Each structure stands twice: as C-alpha cells, then as structure tokens.
Fold this protein.
Amino acid sequence: MRDGDGLQTTVQRKPLWHFAFAGAAGDMAAVCVTQPFDLVKVRMQLAGEMTNVATPSSPRHVFRLMRKIQRHEGVWGSAPSSGLYSGVSASLARQLLWSSTRFGLYAWLMRDWMGHRPDGNGAAMHVKMLCGVVAGAVGATVGTPADVILIRMQADRHWEPQYRRQYHSVFDGWATTVRGDGLTSLWRGCLPTVARATLITSCQLPAYFTFKELLCADQHADVRRALHLDDASPDSTAVHLACSVAAGLVAALVTTPVDVIKTRIMNAQVCRPETPQYNGVTGSFRLILSTEGPRGFLKGFAPTALRLVPHNMILWVVQEKVHTWLDSGVFA
C-alpha cells in the first residue's frame, strides 16, 4: 500500500485464515436466516419455464409463495427436499467452500499481490474489482458441487413425483450424483456459476469496502447526518449495516440475469429430451430470450433482493464481529 507521497507503507499483516474463517462464518450465519428467500427465488426462476408469460415476482408474491410452501411442505419438510429450509445443508456447505475461498483469496490478492490493505482501503476501484473477479471465480469453482445439489434440492418439487431426486442431504446428493452421472457432473453449470460469482464478488466486496471508506471519511459528515449515523468509526455496527444494505442492492441488480441461467442449467434433466435442454450459457441465453423474452432474465429479482440485503447485513456484521474477536488474540 502506498500513501499520498508514493512511499511504501507497512501492509497490515493478519493471518489469511482470519479472512477465510470470518467470511465463511458470516455467510453461514446469514444462510440460517435467508434460506427461505433463496428457495422462493429458485422456484420463481423455474416458474413459467419456456413460456412468454409474466410471472408475478413482487415482494407481495414472494411472501405469498413463502406462506404457500410453509402450509403445504412445512418449514423443514417431512419429505426429502421439501420445506422452506429445503437444501439448507447444501447451502451451508456451499458457503463454507466458496465464501472461505473468496474472502481468503481476496485478502491475499489485495495484500500480497497488489500491496494494499486486505480490505482494499485506498486502492483504485478497478484494482478492487479485479481482485473480486479472481477471488469469485476460484471460490465458485470450489463451491459448484455444493451449489448443484442446492439447486436440485430446492427445485425438486418442480418435477413430477416419479422424476424427483429426493436427496436427503448434501452428502446424499453428492454420492447419488457421482454414482449416477459421474464426478464431473458435480460441476454442471460451473460456467454461469463462475460468471455470477465474479459479478457478485467484484461488486459486493468493493462496494461494501468503498461505501465504508466513504462513510467514515471526514468530508462526508453530511451523508452520515442524513443517514443518522452518529458514530463514524469503521467498527460501528451502524456503519456496517448501512454499507451492507447498499452492497446487497448492487449485488442483486447485477446478478439476477446470470442467476436465472445458472438455475436453469443446474436443474435441467438431460436424460429427458422432452424437457427444456439448456446447453451452455450462450445457448441458454438464446433459449430463454426466444421463449420468455427479456423479462425472463429478471425472474426472481424480488426474492433475490429480499434475500441479498438481509443476507449482506448479517454477513458483514457477523464477519466484522468475528474479525474483532480474532484480533483480540483469542488464539494467541
């Protein structure tokens, strides 16, 4: 990291596993609250598949569908892959794999490759986004096997009973998938997953750290007053919440179209030619555009935003608290 005079300053030396651990802890804590919104998002993305019929996706319809799932399937669900928390084991596994990788790698790239603070404070926006792209891509590749099982568990009720996969857990899903389709099938849809992850990481992390840097700057006291933020400290929970809301809205806006393509590819049943066949990102893009129109790419935006904003709030607050806990020397 260089100061205004261009002189090399001391780069903060913190164990990289702190960033990986705190990132995974924050995302896994958030999943425990926002999993129902993720389930509704996937169900909405599959609704009206291959038809140019508008699918209601306002917040009112999100909560209506959530109540419907709760009435018919329950919260946890008595049958495999049912209930509002369907796929939660896969979701936790996904966050453990991809979040620990992306946060740890982002800190490493920013500090050891770019010579900045691990949070990118003072770095140019393009540097932050570049580190986010690389960290998101690698993290998504590591986490795709859990993501595949997550999508299939959440979307299982989309299929007729005789075609449902009925995974009992992420481990059952992995074993069943490898036995039936081979190991490489766990990376089905990896490309759109990587595309979405690069978008969300290159937007979410730089947005959060940039908003935090700006809010805490002396010249933006009027913005803090408008937001009723009395404490301008980087350790302020109010600052963390404000920045996380902004980062969540940015992430929801840029990732929904890619998320729709990812969901369709991962949920497809390639052994049944009579069902929609999504072949690659480009082919899937053309198929959705030709059959559902541009609005097909926005299916599930409301639950995405309703999920990502509170998810980001929990993620960053928990992550910041874990960092404070780790920095206190609990493992010293």
Summary: The first helix runs from residue 16 to 46.
